[in-house]
Amino acid sequence: MVSLWYPARSPGRHRAPYMTAKASELLLKDGGITDLPADTLSRTRTNAFTDARPAGRPRSLPLVVLSPGHSKPRTELTALAEELASHGYAVAAIDHTYENVATSFPDGRVTTCVTCEIDDKGPAWWAKLEKSRAADVSFVLDRLTGAHAPWKGSRLIDPSRIAMAGHSAGGAATVASIAADTRLRAGIDLDGSVETTLPEAGTSRPFLFLGKPATYTPGTGEPAATWERVWARLTGWKRWLLLTGAAHTSFTDLGVLMDQVGIEDGAAVPGARALGLTRAYVTAFFDRHLRGQPRPLLDEPSADVPEVRFCSPEDKTCE
Fold first, then answer.
1. Which residue in 46, 48, 87, 45 sits closest to 64, CA to CA?
2. pTM value surpassing 0.85
3. Burial class (CB in 10 A: 0-12, 13-18, 19+), 240
4. CA angle at 253 for the pair 252 and 256, rounded to the nearest 5°
5. How confident is the model at residue 154 (pLDDT cuts 50, 70, 90)?
6. Would you tell me how many other CB atoms lie within 10 Å of the CB of residue 140?
7. Distance between CA atoms of residues 273 and 205, nearest Å
8. pLDDT single digits (tens) 203-222
9. pLDDT tens across 307-317, in order?
10. In whole angstroms, what is the distance from residue 82 CA to residue 252 CA?
């Protein structure tokens, strides 16, 4: 299943639901949340409309592919997708079937998380999952840019300006996807440890790491070391940024939703602030590397954004 967001000529008649009622029920159950109505997340308001007429000229829209964390739905990246669409991007968020607690299909079928039931998830297993997701991404690009695309607005996509971002396992899959598919011009990993190894020659395509200091401060443990191994083979533009006070959920809608219902996720920064910063840095990155627009936000630390630190893995320092 794939959701598409895009700039529209005018609002549609119906607000896009955040997810289906069944998906809401299963996601809340998976999180052990029993004191909310089961359909709470299906009634969560979004800013998008369904089936609105897309705006743009042929081949005018850069395309960003989004991949969620393992066991999480593609909808956890809705706010990021809406942000990018509001800036003139087409966005395709993928649910990797059987890796999410609930994927609802248009015919009413709902698949659950088969991979969640696997107990032995070592590095080799995660590397295999990243490779599998990369195959999903290539398939979606084939369909969206092919001769018989299922979306009528596909002709608006510029096939020379495609990039990807992902959260957690989706961030790791972004590395694998860039290694496997040259159509992806740039990538972002949001708080995801990586088992994929880039080719020895590396890649010159731009890449951004954005994560939490507790896990990804250079030189502090195996998760950070997975970033360091990828970093060493990134030969082009690259940044390693940390969001002070963030939790794993802070880079997605989940941090905001958990704040709203009073569930603690361990973050010291409010969910809305963390998500706003994530959207700002992600959009700046794609503006710079898919549109060639200068974005000073990415050049150095900013006094206006004291939460975000720029790291130098070579020196094991962040400022």
1. 87
2. yes
3. buried
4. 115
5. very high
6. 17
7. 29
8. 999 999 999 999 999 999 99
9. 999 999 999 99
10. 12
Is the separation of the CB atoms in 96 and 139 below 8 Å? no
Looking at residue 16, the DSSP 8-state letter turns out to be P
Least Cα distance to 163 among 130, 195, 185, 133 occurs for 185
Angle at 278 between CA 11 and CA 309, to 5 degrees: 160
Q: Determine the Cα–Cα distance for residues 255 and 263; give it in Å rounded to an integer.
A: 9
Quick one: 190 exposed, middle or buried, by C-beta within 10 A (0-12, 13-18, 19+)? buried
- Torsion region of 71: left, alpha or beta (phi above 0 gives left; psi -120 to 50 gives alpha): left
CB-based contacts of 206: which residues, under 8 Å, 6+ apart? 185, 186, 187, 236, 237, 238, 285, 288, 289
> Is the CB of residue 42 less than 8 Å from the CB of residue 141?
no
What mean pLDDT is predicted for residues 93-103? 97
CA distance 190 to 211: 6
Structure tokens at 190: 């949001």
